[in-house]
Amino acid sequence: MSTDTPAELAQKALSIRRSIIAMLAHAQSGHTAGALGMADVFAVLYFAVANLDPRHPDKEDRDRILLSNGHICPVLYATLAEAGFFEKKDLYTLRQLDSRLQGHPHVGSLPGVENTSGPLGLGLSQACGLALAFQRDNKTNRVFCLMSDAELQEGQVWEALMFAGKYQLKQLTAVIDRNDIQISGSTNEVMSLEPLKQKLESFNWQVLEVEGHDFGQLIHAFHAASQTEYPTALICHTVPGKGVDFMENKFEWHGKAPTKEQAEQALAQLEQEPDD
Ligand SMILES: Cc1ncc(C[n+]2csc(CCOP(=O)(O)OP(=O)(O)O)c2C)c(N)n1
Ligand SMILES: [Mg+2]
User: Fold this and answer.
1) What is the CATH number of domain 6-269?
2) In the chain, what's the furthest Cα-to-Cα distance?
3) 148 lines ligand 1 (CB under 6 A)
């Protein structure tokens, strides 16, 4: 959308994290850890990488950002509001009956929402379809598919990986939140994914690994993804609950919203300017 500096991106991410806490505390339900953990990746993707225009959310040449792990939609909604796709006050309708901001996103409900998700494992197949269509139409639109790590335990993901490798869907970037948590514990313990990089490479993907809170690394990796003949998997090592000390790296915050008191503590911690 623009070319914000790392310091500006850090400010955007901080604001996104504050919105996530505020909306979840207001709703008193929803998913906190993954949403906070991916705020930096979302800031980079929406504000420094993707071709999008919030005033023209349906413009044809836009890049497509799909959220496959729909449960972290508070970070999607907060980012879209931050970018001006809709008003920030609407964030307080999260999970209300008839709201446009449901607990899992559905396409057509809100400007900027490109796919329906909730059942894990489907988004990469949706993204493959879009990327193949762009390839066949000789269009340059990029397709980004945001995914979680435990989602890779779904068989359909590997069918999509195989498909993208076969058709060399170079416009496709899978952005994997490698936070090593899922509902019931550590992803590595519940069902290990390793060696993940080698597995993805063996499906004919370019695989890049980055620290998911390092704006420079993220910008560089998204650029590298645009320079290859292969689909790219971007493994982002993130800290679930990032920015709030009592939430960080705790799988218990996967699907829990903060109480009013916890939200106040969290917002106090999210006031300082992040180091960059
Ligand atoms: C097909 C399917 N099975 C089960 C679920 C229930 N579920 C929601 S999130 C989740 C896994 C959480 O792990 P991860 O996706 O890594 O999310 P994180 O905690 O890192 O945000 C599960 C099993 C689902 N949404 N879809
Ligand atoms: Mg996870």
Assistant:
1) 3.40.50.970
2) 53
3) yes
